[in-house]
């Protein structure tokens, strides 16, 4: 019995240790950035405190000095998104610093920019053409924005026409997608659960909600899995394609995220050697 209890609660202790560590990191982040701020002009020459005092930052952010002290000390206090936003503005954080603040606090930034699917830099759109194996680029709502010739050949040259270029919609609704896939239902189901993970990160994105509404009307499989709330990270693995000319083609899928636009995915397909077939 004692062993069972130890095993049962050890995971909770580990999780709590991670939470405490996260809180200490948040406190250290806030203190460091507070101390980098210029001191008020009214501060005396003998003042030894670098940057702003906690009381001064709390006043600038319209927050309690005691609450800010506890937050910097890594205590278990509630930090709402609204309070964090006030701190970010009072600390004059850069976009990257603001993102780190919300990441450390485990909160979603209410002013986080909604990804704009329409505007991708030319150098990013040209990226798939630099690969000799099938490669394509997905934007924030999984619309195919660019692909190379090997990818066009693999998908039987059906990667044309704006209405057919959303990967999820194409996979679920296109007869060509069904005929090309060696395991269509499993693949379509996996894509839905992967898309759910992206959707949960940006549930207020109008373009994503529009796609969900459309697929809810058009795809029974989507409705079934969407309501199940299953979530899966986008993972690699072997993908089989039943090409109308070349027959069965096996690839290892690798998905890369673009650092400057993490909602954009570069998907690369590497041929599986015949010895591994």
Descriptive account of the structure:
The chain has 277 residues and is of the alpha+beta class. It has 2 domains: 2-105, lambda repressor-like DNA-binding domains (434 Repressor (Amino-terminal Domain)), CATH 1.10.260.40; 122-276, Beta-Lactamase, CATH 3.30.450. Helices cover 49% and strands 12% of the residues. It has a 5-stranded antiparallel sheet. A hairpin with a 5-residue loop joins strand 1 (135-138) and strand 2 (144-147). Helix 2 (54-61) crosses helix 3, helix 2 (54-61) crosses helix 4 (81-90) and helix 10 packs across helix 12. It starts with a helix and ends in a 6-residue tail after the last strand. 21% of the residues are buried.
What's the oligomerization state?
Answer: single chain
Number of DSSP strand runs: 5
Estimated radius of gyration: 25 Å
Beta-strand percentage? 5-15%
N→C terminal distance: 48 Å
Low-pLDDT segments: 1-10
Characterize the main sheet.
5 strands, antiparallel
Q: CATH topology of the largest domain, anyone?
A: Beta-Lactamase
* CATH top level assignment of the largest domain: Alpha Beta
**N-to-C SSE string, H for helix and E for strand:** HHHHHHEEHHHHHHEEE
Strand order of the largest sheet: 2-1-5-4-3
The name of the CATH architecture of the largest domain is 2-Layer Sandwich
Q: By helix and strand content, what is the structural category?
A: alpha+beta
Can you count the helices?
A: 12
Report the average pLDDT across residues: 83
Q: Which outline best applies?
A: elongated
């Amino acid at each position: 019995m004692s062993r069972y209890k130890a095993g049962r609660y050890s995971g909770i202790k580990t999780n709590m240790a991670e939470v405490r560590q996260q809180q200490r990191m948040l406190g250290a982040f806030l203190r460091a950035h507070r101390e980098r701020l210029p001191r008020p002009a009214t501060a005396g020459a003998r003042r030894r405190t670098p940057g702003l005092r906690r009381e001064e930052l709390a006043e600038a952010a319209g927050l309690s000095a005691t609450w800010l002290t506890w937050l910097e000390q890594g205590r278990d206090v509630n930090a709402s998104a609204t309070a964090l936003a006030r701190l970010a503005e009072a600390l004059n954080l850069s976009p990257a610093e603001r993102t780190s603040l919300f990441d450390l606090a485990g909160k979603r930034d209410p002013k986080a920019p909604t990804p704009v699917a329409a505007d991708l830099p030319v150098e990013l759109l040209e990226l798939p053409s630099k690969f000799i194996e099938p490669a394509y680029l997905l934007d924030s709502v999984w619309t195919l924005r660019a692909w190379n010739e090997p990818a066009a050949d693999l998908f039987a040259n059906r990667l044309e026409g704006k209405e057919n270029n959303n990967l999820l919609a194409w996979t679920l609704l296109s007869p060509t997608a069904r005929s090309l896939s060696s395991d269509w239902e499993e693949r379509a189901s996996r894509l839905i659960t992967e898309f759910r993970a992206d959707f949960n990160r940006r549930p207020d994105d109008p373009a994503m909600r529009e796609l969900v509404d459309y697929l809810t009307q058009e795809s029974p499989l989507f409705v079934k899995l969407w309501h199940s709330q299953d979530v899966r990270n986008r993972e690699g693995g072997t993908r089989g394609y039943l090409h109308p000319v070349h027959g069965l083609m096996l690839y290892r899928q690798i998905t890369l995220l673009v650092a400057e636009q993490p909602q954009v995915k570069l998907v690369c397909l590497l041929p599986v050697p015949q010895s591994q077939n």
